[in-house]
């Protein structure tokens, strides 16, 4: 299968590892991956911050860039939800990674091996906008050697919320403190998720507290063959 | 005060955090169980949404039908453009009745228009008879913090002390909830028996029959609605329902969503007046109070579908931590964040549409499926367009970024800037972020640089 990677501007700039892992993983599963270099940003940040007008050009651009592909895969539940809702012409063929693996490729065991203690934070947008359900967990359970521990209060927001984390920094931090407490309670060495934005938030506090717990995008675990 | 500043204060109140966190966690779990019992919960939500949408689309017609039916049943209908008009109507009725005291059923609409304060200015004391409302009323420094449980921010010990110092007149009440409640019961019972006039809100007004409905848990409402000679009900115009049968949907949705009960302990329904039974004089005041303005906004109008269950407050991670008072409105939480700015004008509460991480928990539980996150985003857009200068640093940054993302060449240049720590995003966002969280180490190369290195520019 030939697929286009929608990396998201956030991952492209700050978390290239998530994108590389998607490429490795999809190629291992027999996909031919293309990366349209013309892609930039999907406009979610603008829309969610109240600048819908400024986003319309980005929406059009996204539609043009991905028009000719049969399937588009993204390592971001949040941006996938945005384009699915807002960009009619192509939104329907954009899939979040775990959706794509299970629903389109029909695989649950992706041949990964990752012998570490891991907890999974299901992001709000993957749960409530995309309804990915337990797809990420089903994929993680098949990973060789993984010690997957359940996260208490998993469905609760980590407090990121895009510009919310900055505009309402105090409230955001109060939410984040509880999330971090739950992560630490699991005694996991890795906290994973389907969005690096939430992971940057959780990871920012884990790092500030010198907890020694690291964050990894789910693609990086699914691509791992340690 | 902006939401941010108000939240800064409440976030530091450890007792408040503990009280609200404990209460919302408990009710959240109870609600999940109550909802899971209903096999057709999702179709019920769809029905609730559809009935409300239809009502809003035919609102003038429904209200005229309601007026005709209430009048035919012996009630008197008043129309109030705003709170001042509504308060004046209530005050004039009380004066004609000749009472300097009215008893009240818990009502958000009356709180919204500050009826108690308005009546007090006219020499009429409005006594709250709902236990939580009474708790808030007894402490002049206090304010409601929840739609359903206005004193959710108070724990038992705080309430005991308050009662001992006020209605129990120094008597020691002990630690049993029943003994503390008994003090309120004794205080209120006398009022139910002697005060000639009651004021209530309304959960529903049925256009078809002229029936008004109030649901409650404590029985204080039933007392107020049946004992006094005169009853005045203040109803927001959006509370009308077209048909009697519509109750079948809302009397299932409301109690399970709000108190997590299969059915609420008291459901009072009355139609006009009936000689020898209940109040002999009934007034219905239909309040606009900004609602027709909300109705004019095609996206925002769904906020009027709200049945005041408070499920969205109980699941909201923001509300759970900041409490109701940070919203500085009788409507706190997610529904308040979309209702308050629309009812009172965006300029009155421009920070409220941002009082959310857009996590979507509110939409997930709303019994009438109000898409609160989408309305928040819509209102953010309106605030940006209607209330703010185009030259704020944020507006300029957003414009700058939209321009930077508009071509591949500019985008790649912006990436290089960001990497050097000089980009507009990084600059604007840094202090707010790094005060409390670390930033990740910037990667050695962007994804696209890696791709180009591996696969060429193709």
Any descriptors?
heterodimer; A: about 230 residues; alpha/beta; Rossmann fold; 2 domains; four-stranded parallel sheet; 13 helices; globular; B: about 450 residues; Fumarate Reductase Iron-sulfur Protein, Chain B, domain 2; 3 domains; six-stranded parallel sheet; four-stranded mixed sheet; about 50% helix
User: Regions of chain B with pLDDT < 50 over 5+ consecutive residues?
Assistant: none
Distance between the termini of chain A: 26 Å
Number of domains of chain B: 3
| Share in helix of chain A | 40-55%
- Chain pair with largest interface: A-B, 64 and 63 residues
What's the total helix number of chain A? 13
**What is the CATH fold-level name of the largest domain in chain B?**
Rossmann fold
Regions with little confidence, pLDDT below 50 for 5+ residues of chain A: none
Order of helices and strands of chain A: EHHEHHEHHEHEHHEHHEHEH
CATH class of the largest domain in chain B: Alpha Beta
Domain Lactate utilization protein B C-terminal (chain B): 383-454
Domain 4Fe-4S ferredoxin-type (chain B): 303-370
Domain LUD (chain B): 63-287
GO molecular function (chain B): 4 iron, 4 sulfur cluster binding
Written description of the protein model:
The complex is a heterodimer of chains A (226) and B (458). Chain A has 226 residues and is of the alpha/beta class. Chain A contains 13 helices and eight strands. Chain A has helices at residues 9-14, 16-28, 44-48, 52-66, 77-86, 88-91, 97-104, 124-129, 135-141, 164-167, 169-185, 196-208, 218-223, and strands at 2-5, 32-34, 72-74, 94-96, 117-120, 147-149, 190-193, 214-217. In chain A, helix 11 packs across helix 12. The longest helix of chain A has 17 residues, at 169-185. Chain A is globular, with a radius of gyration of 17 Å. By secondary structure, chain B is α/β, with parallel strands linked by helices. Chain B folds into three domains: 38-289, 3-Layer(aba) Sandwich (Rossmann fold), CATH 3.40.50.10420; 292-387, Orthogonal Bundle (Fumarate Reductase Iron-sulfur Protein, Chain B, domain 2), CATH 1.10.1060; 393-455, no CATH class. Chain B is built from 22 helices and ten strands. The interface between A and B is large, with 64 and 63 residues.
């Amino acid at each position: 299968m030939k697929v286009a990677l929608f990396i998201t501007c956030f991952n492209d700039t700050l978390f290239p590892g998530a994108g590389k892992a998607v490429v490795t993983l999809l190629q291992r599963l027999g996909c031919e991956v293309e990366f349209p270099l013309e892609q930039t940003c999907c406009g979610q940040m603008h829309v969610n911050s109240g600048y819908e007008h400024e986003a319309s050009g980005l929406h059009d651009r996204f539609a043009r860039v991905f028009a000719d592909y049969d399937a588009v895969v993204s390592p971001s539940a949040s941006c996938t939800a945005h384009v699915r809702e807002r960009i009619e012409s192509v939104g329907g063929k954009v899939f979040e990674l775990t959706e794509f693996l299970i629903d389109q490729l029909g695989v649950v065991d992706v041949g990964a091996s990752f012998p570490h203690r891991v907890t999974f934070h299901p992001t709000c947008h993957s749960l409530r906008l995309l309804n990915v359900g337990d797809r990420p967990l089903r994929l993680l359970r098949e990973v060789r050697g993984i010690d997957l521990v359940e996260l208490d209060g998993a469905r609760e927001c980590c407090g990121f919320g895009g510009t919310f984390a900055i505009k309402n920094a105090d409230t955001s931090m109060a939410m984040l403190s509880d999330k971090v407490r739950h992560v630490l309670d699991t005694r996991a060495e890795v906290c994973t998720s389907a969005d690096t934005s939430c992971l940057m938030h959780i990871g920012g506090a884990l790092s500030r507290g010198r907890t020694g717990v690291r964050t990894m995008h789910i693609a990086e675990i699914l691509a791992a063959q340690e | 005060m902006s939401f941010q500043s108000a939240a800064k204060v409440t976030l530091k109140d450890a007792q408040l955090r503990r009280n609200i966190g404990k209460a919302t966690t408990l009710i959240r779990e109870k609600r999940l169980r109550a909802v899971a019992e209903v096999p057709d919960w999702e179709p019920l939500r769809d029905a609730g949404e559809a009935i409300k949408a239809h009502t809003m689309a035919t609102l003038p017609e429904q209200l005229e039908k309601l007026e005709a039916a209430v009048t035919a049943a012996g009630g008197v209908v008043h129309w109030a453009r705003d709170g001042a008009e509504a308060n004046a109507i209530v005050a004039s009725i009380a004066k004609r009745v000749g009472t300097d005291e009215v008893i009240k059923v818990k009502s958000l609409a009356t709180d919204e228009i500050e009826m108690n304060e308005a009546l007090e200015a006219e020499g009429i004391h409005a006594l709250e008879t709902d236990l939580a409302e009474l708790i808030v009323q007894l402490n002049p420094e206090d304010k409601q913090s929840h739609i359903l449980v206005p004193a959710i921010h108070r724990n038992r010990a705080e309430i005991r002390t308050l009662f001992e110092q006020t209605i129990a007149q120094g008597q020691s009440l002990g630690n049993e909830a029943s003994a503390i409640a008994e003090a309120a019961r004794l205080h209120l019972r006398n009022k139910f028996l002697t005060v000639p006039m009651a004021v209530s809100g309304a959960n529903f007004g049925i256009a078809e029959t002229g029936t008004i409905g109030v649901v409650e848990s404590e029985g204080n409402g039933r007392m107020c609605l049946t004992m006094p000679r005169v009853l005045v009900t203040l109803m927001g115009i959006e509370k009308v329902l077209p048909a009697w049968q519509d109750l079948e949907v809302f009397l299932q949705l409301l109690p399970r969503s709000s108190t997590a009960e299969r059915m609420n302990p008291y459901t009072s329904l009355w139609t006009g007046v009936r000689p020898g039974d209940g109040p002999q004089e009934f007034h219905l005041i239909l309040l606009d109070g900004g609602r027709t303005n909300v109705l004019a906004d095609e996206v925002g109008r769904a906020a009027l579908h709200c049945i005041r269950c408070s499920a969205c407050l109980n699941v909201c991670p923001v509300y759970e931590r900041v409490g109701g008072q940070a919203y500085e409105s009788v409507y706190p939480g997610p529904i308040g964040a979309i209702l308050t700015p629309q009812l009172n004008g965006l300029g009155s509460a421009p920070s409220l549409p941002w009082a959310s991480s857009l996590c979507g928990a509110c939409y997930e539980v709303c019994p009438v499926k109000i898409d609160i996150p989408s309305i928040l985003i819509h209102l953010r857009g309106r605030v940006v367009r209607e209330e703010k200068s185009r030259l704020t640093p944020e507006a300029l940054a957003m414009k700058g970024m939209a321009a930077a993302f508009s071509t591949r060449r500019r985008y790649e240049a912006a990436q290089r800037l960001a990497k050097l720590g000089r980009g507009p995003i990084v600059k604007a966002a840094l202090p707010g972020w790094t005060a409390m969280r670390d930033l990740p180490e910037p990667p050695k190369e962007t994804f696209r640089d890696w791709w180009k290195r591996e696969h060429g520019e193709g």
